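Page 47, continued from p. 46.
Same chain as before, 207 aa.
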Amino acid sequence: MNGEPDNMASEADQDLLREAIQRLLAHAAILRQDHRDLYDWCRVQQARLDELAALVGLNLLWEHDHRLILAVPQSAKLLRRFRQDESLAALALWYDFDRAVKDDGKSPDEVAFTVREFNESLGTKFKDLKLPSESRLREILQLFERKSLVRVADTAGTGGFAEAIIRVLPTIRFVIPFPSLDEWKRQRERYVQAAAEPEEVSNEPED
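Result:
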């Protein structure tokens, strides 16, 4: 009887450890705003989680200022190859997030805009390129949501998909770690040039 509480605690820890690793593999991040209890447990168990993550090919970034844990794949088997339109959308999200925080003074947790506004922004940044259709943009945003880059809300509102709200998550800074806007511009030019050639892709976490 005396051992039962410890056994129960151990089983509960195993369940939480399994949930944390599965979420990091599937969604690349754990955000406190979405999973408060799991995030807080992971902080206490950081060394244990780091060890297990390394075994499955992940390096964990513990960004406590932003209240998130990010999984960076260390194995090619865990990488997903972004298509060109996905890469361009990710670049645009990084830019809009960076400008909102640095120029507009917004908190990293409150950067949001409508799909229509983002589509207009995408067109301005890549005006010489063919932009994703509405259905394709929806697919891209769903992918980014699974990978913990954005949250999309109000998709069933009266304004339709165009008025849905995209909230960019602070993970965008670490998944696309540009040191400066100049580097972003260089990457933009690279993708613009690549768009005129046979499709080229970049590595990102696998689905």
